[in-house]
Each structure stands twice: as structure tokens, then as C-alpha cells.
Amino acid sequence: MCGRTRLVKDYSQIRIELTFAEEGRIPNYAPRWNIAPSEDLLTAVRDKHGKRRPVMMRWGLIPAWAKDEKIAFSTFNARAESIDTKPAFRGAWAAGQRCLFVTDGFYEWRKSEPRDTRQPFAVAMANGKPMVMAGLYEGWVSPTGERIRTVTIITTDANAKIAPIHPRMPVVLDKSDWGKWLGEEPASEAELKALLVPCPPETIDAWPVSARVGNVRNEGPELLERVEDAAPVTATQTRLL
After folding, report:
1. I want to staple 196 with a disulfide (CB 3.0 to 4.6 A). Which of 4, 66, 80, 136 is the partner?
2. Cα(33)–Cα(19) distance, integer angstroms
3. Which residues are catalytic?
4. How far apart are the C-alpha atoms of 193 and 24, rounded to whole Å?
5. Model pTM?
6. What is the pLDDT of residues 40-82, one digit of tens each?
7. Neighbour count for residue 194 (Cβ, 10 Å)
């Protein structure tokens, strides 16, 4: 799964890396080291003119048919295996409402340990560039008439780097696949689903960090500092996951 992300890079760097259209509104976001579901995330979408645009969206997809926001507490992740069949997501999938999540990485807690003592890990791209994840978005109108764009991060089986920590991970897309996922290049449903696989383990890094990241009120670069792992994963534990 993926329940925490971060984004601290300046937008000028991101615009170049994501090749956003130069005209248009600049997204309003501040550097964040600890972003949780229900907060806004920077995404990339293909607009009606075929241009790649930055859009801030609320994390936790609310399907168009939902009567209230409660469902968002369980829809911040979508399993790749059921993306086209689960009621909460199949409408967005059928409508081609695919987006890219722009992050500097995510945090994950080692699932093999008791919940209140699990070791958190920071995960980032090995080359230091943005970690771009696959997602779906949906437009929702609240009972009061407010229009909200909400999103979910798609997850898949963990690769060899993440498997000792957790059995699932977000779908991290290679730059060469961004256009296909956004619909800028033609792709069949089978070709799109083929993208929803673990990224190569050598493309990412993971290291233990302070338990302070577990509190959503904590922010700052110190959350990324490496700490000693009190219970490093053994080969036996890896086989059990």
C-alpha cells in the first residue's frame, strides 16, 4: 500500500521534468515531507486540448455516485488487479481518467512487526528524480454543490527491494510510459494494464527513518534522516512475506 508521500522539489524543477505546458496556472503547493490521505497531491493530467497539465487533487478517490465523503478513507489506494472491477474505481477506469502522481517518494512500515512498533522506511528514486506513480481521478459533487477532484494511487505486488518491508507498493512508472498512461499515446486496455507492475528494484532506494513520520503533524527534512534499524529483515523473514 501507500499511505504517506512527500514532495519537496521546487515547481520549476518539476515542470521541466514532467514537461508541463508552459502556459496556465502554477499549482499552489508548499514543500511537504509528510503528506497523508485527505490532503492535496500534485498530479499530472492530459487536458481537453491534449496538453499535460499540473493539477492539485485531494488524496482519496470519491466515486461520482457517492453520497458523502466517507468512502475516501478506504480508497486512497487501488489494487491494480481489480482496478476495472471494483465499484469505487471502475467508473474512473472506464472513462480513461488516469493521472500521474508527482512525488519525491513514499514511506512504508514493515508489516511483519506489531503495528505499534513497526519500523518506517523512506523510499525514493535511486537517481534522485521525482517518483511518478500511476493513479486514477474522479470528479465529485458534494451535497452542498462543491466540485472536488479526488484521486487514488494504484498499487501492485512489491519488488525485491520493498518485499522485505511490505507485500505491496505503488506503481512507479518509467518516464517512457508517462505519455501512454495519460492517453497522449494510443494504448489498448491490455497495454495499460501491463504497465501496472513493480518497478525494477535497482531503480529505487529504501532506508529506515524515525518513527516521528508516523505522526502526520510532524514535518521537515529530518524525517528523511537514516536511523539504525533495530530489527533488520533476515533472509528467512523475507521468504515468509
Report:
1. 80
2. 23
3. 2, 108
4. 31
5. 0.92
6. 999 999 998 889 999 999 999 999 999 989 999 899 999 999 9
7. 12
